[in-house]
Amino acid sequence: MFVDRVVIRVQGGRGGDGAISFRREKYIPRGGPDGGKGGEGGRVFLRASSHRETLRGLAFSPLYQAPSGEGGKGRKQEGRKGEDLVIEVPRGTQVFDNQTGELIADLLYPGMEVMVARGGRGGKGNVSFASPDNRTPRMAQKGEEGEERELRLELKLFADVGLVGLPNAGKSTLLSRMSKAKSPVAPYPFSTREPFLGTVGEGEEKFVLLDIPAIVEGASEGKGLGSEFLRHLERAYLLLYVIDLSSSFSGTNPREDLRILREELRKYNSLLEEKPFLVVANKLDLPGARENWDSFKKTIERERIEGWGISALSGEGVVELLERIREILKEERGKGEAIVAKAEIKEKDISPTIYRFSSTYLEKLLQEADLYPGEEEEFLNRELEKSGFKRYLLSLKSSSVIEVGERKLVWKEKRLKFLADE
């Protein structure tokens, strides 16, 4: 079962209690207090993983809680910090505060982590309460409870090309023809009930194709299954509007079908209307379809819309269509903008969000930056721009703190800055 929305509760670990202890050693009869501070509670992180495909399974736990910090000890020893709890989610998961609706993070990059709950502070030991008036304090502070939050997780799949169509347009057959995906098909009017991904080709020409459930008129207002999955199209570079030339199911004409599809996507998110698209007129193998295609082709050409007539069942025209898709993807990938959900990021005056990146590339880049004293930031941002890695950072809120190993940076004004410089 494909699950792309789930609500979970997370809580940081409780801070350890401070210790009440007194120094007792030979020849030191009045050693005084030496109770140490409790350790901080563990933090909760969400980590993007390329090994997870859905959010299924996360909702089965009522609460994800990090371990508590250890209590303080004698000899002014601080308790051990609680271990951080890391929850793996699929790459492309968006994290929202379920109470306020605020977008906390968009986990685009495998290994990217965001802190979603802080651990509680450890309590002070009795050594902290010693004073000239009270040389033997018999009090210590309790550890704080960890931060608790309710989160809504929404997955937006990563695909290069998205298939859009009315019921029985032949999207699943086209997906199966182009890739090795086993999307369900049938010889009768039928629609898939969940998204399917298929990989087409190999090497540099490889791309991922996404088939979402069929769209019906009113989908943008919640009608039909397709409305639940329209957001998965937002990360695609290219959309294919698959049109049924036979009109055997919809009872409408191809031009009307195309109008419905484009209108529903526009109503759902105006950004989808701006994406490059091709019209794929399917089912040329059926009686009367070629006549429909000749008429439909003239109509869309007058509107300067590029269209391709194919038969997903027989394979006619599919190879030529694939070549055209690769040409468009080569151009669009160079822009590097499709993965950024620009319409959803809102800058607010909030406390910084903390991210962690498990990235050998970033660790190596930071080491190289140290070779340019006084120019570390310029070198770092220049290299990020050249490599294309910077596009993964564009969805972060301003003032977000980024941890890479032991190094800390801050994302501000669309640049990485070393935290020590802030």
Shape: elongated
Our measurement of the CA-to-CA distance between the termini, rounded to an integer number of angstroms, reads 47 Å
Oligomer: single chain
Order of helices and strands: EEEEEEEEEHEEEHHEHEHEHHEEE
Q: Quote the average pLDDT.
A: 86
Summarize this entry quickly.
The chain is an alpha/beta fold and 422 residues long.
Describe it.
The chain has 422 residues and is of the alpha/beta class. The chain has seven helices and 18 strands. The protein has helices at residues 171-178, 254-268, 270-273, 289-302, 318-335, 360-369, 376-387; strands at 5-11, 44-49, 64-65, 85-90, 93-97, 103-107, 112-117, 148-155, 161-165, 196-200, 207-211, 238-244, 277-282, 307-309, 354-357, 400-404, 407-412, 415-418. A hairpin with a 6-residue loop joins β10 (196-200) and β11 (207-211). It is elongated and about 105 Å long. Mean pLDDT is 86; it is low at 339-351.
Sequence-ordered SSE layout with sheet pairings:
Blueprint: E1 5-11, E2 44-49, E3 64-65, E4 85-90, E5 93-97, E6 103-107, E7 112-117, E8 148-155, E9 161-165, H1 171-178, E10 196-200, E11 207-211, E12 238-244, H2 254-268, H3 270-273, E13 277-282, H4 289-302, E14 307-309, H5 318-335, E15 354-357, H6 360-369, H7 376-387, E16 400-404, E17 407-412, E18 415-418
Parallel strand pairs: 1-3, 2-4, 9-11, 9-12, 12-13, 13-14, 15-16
Antiparallel strand pairs: 1-8, 2-7, 5-6, 5-8, 7-15, 10-11, 16-17, 17-18
